[in-house]
Amino acid sequence: MASNGAGGSSDERSPLLSNDEEGQNGHGEHSAPPANPKTRGTVWGLLTLAFIAALVVLIGFEHKLGDSFKAWLGILPKDPMRAAYMIMDKAPVIVSLSFR
């Protein structure tokens, strides 16, 4: 076996860092702090409330939203040019004209 520069023996299976540091498990990886179920429940509850509020605004007040938001709901805008662009964006039509 070869000796490393610190005077100890070098082994491929030995850890590079000592395991006496806090926050490390036996494999040299940092362990995650224990999960707090109360915090997790609060975060998921807030995310659920935000999602429901966004759905209520998009679906419940669709007549008050601008044309740009109506495209997200699949509703064609009132402006005919914007409606045409929206349709062409989803299903483009290619016309081939040949004059002889």
% residues in beta strands: under 5%
Order of helices and strands: HHH
Unreliable stretches, pLDDT < 50, 5 or more residues? none
In round numbers, the mean pLDDT is 74
Main sheet overview: none
Derived structural class: mainly alpha
Oligomerization state: single chain
**What value does the Rg take, in angstroms?**
31 Å
**Terminal CA distance:** 85 Å
Give the total of beta strands: 0
Number of helical elements: 3
Determine the fraction of residues in helical runs and give it as a percent range. 40-55%
Shape: flat
What does this structure look like?
The chain is an all-alpha fold and 100 residues long. Among the domains are: 34-64; 65-100, no CATH class. The protein is 42% helix and 0% strand. The protein contains three helices and no strands. It has helices at residues 37-60, 67-73, 80-90. It is flat and about 85 Å long. It starts with 36 loop residues before the first helix and ends in a 10-residue tail after the last helix. The relative contact order is 0.05. The model has no long low-confidence stretch (mean pLDDT 74).
